[in-house]
Amino acid sequence: MSIINEKILKDLDKYLKANADENVSDEATENLINEFMMSYNNRIGSPVTDEPETSDDYLELAYEARNKKEALKFAKKALALEPYNFDAEALVIELKAKNETELVIGYAKAVQKATEYMKKEGYFEEEYIGDFWGVLETRPYMRLRGRFTEILIQCGKMGQACEECRELLRLCKNDNLGIRYQLMHIYAYFENEEAAIALYKHFKSHSETQMLLPLSILYYKKGKYVKAWQYLRKLNSVNKDLKQFMQIFSKGMFEEFDDVELMEGYRPDTMEEFIMEFRENLFLFCTMTAYAEWALQKIKKLD
């Protein structure tokens, strides 16, 4: 769900609280929801607001700003109005940082501040642990920590990134952000076989490209070629573009991946998924051309 849609749900919640009590009937509640949505739909296509009032209003203006300076001004205003608007804080960090080290430092401070706030608000009580993201109020926090994990990986801080991934999966057992894929590639990087297999079995990921490929690489790195081939063969049965991907990968022609335009989403089990996986996990793939050569020869034998 997009941030904009989350804003609609937050506004709807406020509308219901303002116009209904705890004894309101289901029919009356449905009528209120219809009234709200009719009012909202009439505003679609109009500017965010001529007179922004809330933190979310200013954050929306920041996303739609014409330039970086304007975006930072609106993001700071959003944060001033709501100091615990984690989406606004993340945007301020991104716009102000001059390099990746500043990003790491900024996000580390923001995550610490956000965690203290979430604990104070009771979201780290047992009833919520494991169900983050299912609760609307926890989503900005998850996005903040998810982006922090990405920055840690970009900076080569793999140990920290691993711990962040584990914590995010503890908080959200359904893994709505796809953290398991990052973690599996980190386990392959560290050749942590036991943890990788536990993760694979936990999510029953028997047909996911982004789980099978790093597992195959992990076993190749450990010299367990039979196991490496076992997962590679599973992957070949799942993703029809594996041979084409390995042909490019084995030649180190990574610039071909750079030229591919990916939409916001992608088609699973295609070259698009391989390219996205490759781009997001360069720390693992950049030294594995030998694996790609081996894998390509094994796949050719199936022809």
Describe this structure in words.
With 303 residues, this protein is mainly α. It is 69% helix and 0% strand. The chain is built from 17 helices and no strands. The protein has helices spanning 3-19, 26-43, 55-63, 68-81, 86-96, 100-120, 139-154, 158-171, 179-190, 193-202, 209-221, 225-238, 242-250, 255-258, 271-280, 282-285, 289-300. Helix 6 packs antiparallel against helix 7 (139-154), helix 9 (179-190) runs antiparallel to helix 10 (193-202) and helix 11 packs antiparallel against helix 12 (225-238). The radius of gyration is 23 Å and the shape is globular.
Summarize the model shown:
The protein is an all-alpha fold and 303 residues long. Helices cover 69% and strands 0% of the residues. It has 17 helices and no strands.
Main traits of this protein?
single chain, 303 residues, mainly alpha, 0% strand
Shape: globular
Strand content: under 5%
Number of strands: 0
Q: How many whole angstroms does the radius of gyration measure?
A: 23 Å
Largest sheet: none
Q: Write down the overall mean pLDDT.
A: 87
Report how far apart the termini are: 42 Å
The string of secondary-structure elements, in order, is HHHHHHHHHHHHHHHHH
Helix content: 55-70%
Q: SS-based structural class?
A: mainly alpha
